[in-house]
Amino acid sequence: MNQIASSAAETDSSLKNLVPRIIPRAEHGISRKNISNGALRVLYRLHEAGYKAFLVGGAVRDLLLGEHPKDFDIATDATPEQTRALFRNCRLIGRRFRLAHVVFGREIVEVATFRGIGEAGNSDRHVVDGRIVRDNVYGSIEEDAIRRDFTVNALYYDIADFSVRDYVGGIADLQHRTMRLIGDPELRYREDPVRMLRAARLAAKLNFSLAEETEAPIAGLAGLLADVAPARLFDESLKLFLSGHGLESLRRLHNLGLLGEIFPATAKALAGPRSAEFGRLLGYTFTSTDERIRSDKPVTPAFLFAAMLWEPVRSLAERLVEDGNDPNVAWQVAVDRVVHQQAVRVAIPKRFVMAMEEIWSLQSRFEQRQKKRVLRLLAHPKFRAAYDFLAIRAHDEPELREQVEWWTNAQELDAQQLSEQLQTSPPRRVEGEPAKKRKRSRRRKRSSTDTDVVSAPDAENPGE
Ligand code: ATP
Ligand code: MG
Questions:
Q1: Which residues are catalytic?
Q2: pLDDT value, residue 383
Q3: Hey, CA dihedral for 128, 130, 134, 137, is it positive or negative?
Q4: To the nearest whole percent, how much of the chain has pLDDT over 70?
Q5: Which of 114, 242, 306, 368 is the Cys-Cys partner for 144 at CB 3.0 to 4.6 Å?
């Protein structure tokens, strides 16, 4: 396989030898019952119109593994325009590569025309510094197969006879639970460095190992992720951490040396003096997020990011205090600096950055027991996330456990009971801590756009 994608000329001759292994219907476990209605309708319609139509990618891989795919992608020899002509509910999207989206209520079925290898000069492919930036070259199914990333992602389920076609050894790798890049690994990572993250993510999700030649170049090429658009890295981060296998993804990223490329401060803190405690904090956070996703409970990336950047902020603030800075100022400077440095790598939308900062700033308000403050904190939109984070911190910080108990109890009381309890308990101050200056709460205006990348966050008092 190694020479396949090396040059257009070599590709031509290699493709002639690319004979698929065909697994007939009786010899694989894919049943149409497990394919969504929308995907089946698109497949049949294309087929009836005389086009080739295959289910492809993650869906075929997951079906062969007995899992439930989360989306169904289709590959065809119909052009996007020809596909659109067949469906009323179809729109064309994408600039880098044009795709057809066929919409059935909440389900979107993605239909892609076979991608070609293309030759320099007569194609619409634009390569900058070895990376593909635009790519509208259509081709054969063989070309489409070798353009995909991993062998297990390049299996095709043919609606014409319900067989599975394997051009690149994907079935064998699936059986050995191995992620293997198609073609020359170094070249494929250089073309698109995000494939390194996909290797970590898919191996985590599927509980696969990386083939030796797929893993080996990562250490030397991880730095290429610095050139990937921060917005794309944000999308990838969500897939890595919010797909139900966040903890395993984090572990794989860390072990492959990739975490430092997308969350540098987190990776640094995991190698720092409090690495064991921080590792446990992340373990609790990601485990609880993974469990919530599995039981269909809502999750927010802000909570995960707040945990991932907690130790960097905490340790920087500590250092600034040691240097003689006022604790409140030190905290705010640390928050601003860590958030800024992170935003250079991953474009976390502003609303999530604001939520992270709220989760952090609320941590010091759990000490307060005056009635007005308690009621205000309970009504705060980020109360629940901040309380959950306090509970996670309390695993390793026993001095926080009393607070967790108190607030657990406070949430269970009705308004009347809570009011009575607050009347009887005196305002509480933590032993040895200076009395906090009273300040009026300042609410920041919410940005009207969700996609804003974090810019200079305006100062907010964390002690408030
Ligand atoms: P998931 O289960 O997370 O959806 P997936 O493999 O389906 O995993 P997608 O991002 O949905 O991942 O991509 C669909 C298919 O497109 C992949 O299976 C692969 O064949 C191809 N693909 C995706 N990203 C790349 C890439 N960066 N380079 C080459 N092929 C890719
Ligand atoms: Mg997919």
A1: 71, 73, 149
A2: 94
A3: positive
A4: 84
A5: 114
Instruction: Measure 414 CA to ligand 2 centroid, in angstroms.
Output: 45
Q: Which of 162, 114, 156 is nearest to 135 (CA)?
A: 114
Q: Whose CA is nearest to atom 30 of ligand 1?
A: 148
pLDDT 10s digits, 73-114: 999 999 999 999 999 999 999 877 889 999 999 999 999 999
Q: Encoding tokens for residue 72?
A: 């169904």
Question: Same domain, yes or no, for 267 and 119?
Answer: no
Are 118 and 257 within one domain? no
Output the domain CATH number for residue 246: 1.10.3090.10
Count up the domains in the chain and report the number: 2
pLDDT tier at 419, thresholds 50, 70, 90: confident
Which of the residue ranges 84-98, 313-327, 350-364, 413-427 would you say has the lowest mean pLDDT? 413-427
Q: Could you list which residues have their CB under 5 Å from ion ligand 2?
A: 58, 71
Q: In what helix (H) or strand (E) does residue 103 lie, and over which residues does it extend?
A: strand 99-104
Across 353-366, average pLDDT: 95
DSSP 365-434: GGG---HHHHHHHHHSTTHHHHHHHHHHHHTT-GGGHHHHHHHHHHHHS-HHHHHHHHHHSPP---TTPP
pLDDT, average across residues 320-345:
96
